[in-house]
Amino acid sequence: MTGRLGIIALLAVIFTGSAFASGGPQKSPDTTTQVQVATVSSESTWMLPARPPWCLTEDDYHSRAWQGALTGTFVATEYFCTPAIDIFDGYAFWDGGAVGLTADLYAVGTLSHLTLSNPGGTYNPAVSQDDVLVGTETLGHGKNAYVLNHYVACVYWSAPKFTGMGPWTGTWTATLAGSFSAITYTLTAQMDYFVWRQGVACPAGQQP
User: Fold this and answer.
1) 205 is a domain residue
2) Residue 47 confidence (pLDDT)
3) What pTM was computed for the model?
């Protein structure tokens, strides 16, 4: 179910007075402050064989989606392989390859910020990318009317963008903060340039 359809279904449950299907909001294992958010509603992973299983490298894929209510700050991370640190099968030069990370948020409520960040290091510069509001619509009628906002943030590596720098490495942090009655939030690491370019609707200025 897409983010927009997912949140519409979630709000339909809220407006009929029912609790979340999970039994109520729960604290996510990725949180670092007091947060109420439903558990991961879906997760998809694909990793090349004979690669480090604990970090992402060329052509790997990892996507997680959360659904529920949020009050506070929710933090999730992705770790991209780093040369000389992530040694596997005798090979010491694993890295994140290309391309990067995307955050897709449908929300009802107030957003403080949605930011993708990497502290940088030997192989890549520090990066901090904030969200862009890409859509707003009012749904429902009367007392059940609500404003649904759509936010997207994208970071990617490409040789033309960072000449002389290696592919992404290390820990990426996705920080979502605000107060929402409902969200559907998807964080995706896609390390295949051509698939990523075809599958992600990134804002202007955040596209390869």
Assistant:
1) no
2) 84
3) 0.80
* Cα–Cα distance list, 197 to 11, 82, 153 (Å): 31, 24, 14
Residue 98: alpha-carbon gap to chain centroid: 16
Rg (CA), the chain: 18
Q: Which has the higher per-residue pLDDT, 13 or 79? A: 79
For residue 204, being part of any structural domain is answered with no
Domain holding 21, by residue range, is 3-199
Kindly state whether residue 208 falls inside one of the protein's structural domains.
Answer: no
Q: What tokens were used for 105?
A: 């948020």
133-151 pLDDT per residue, tens: 999 999 888 888 899 999 9
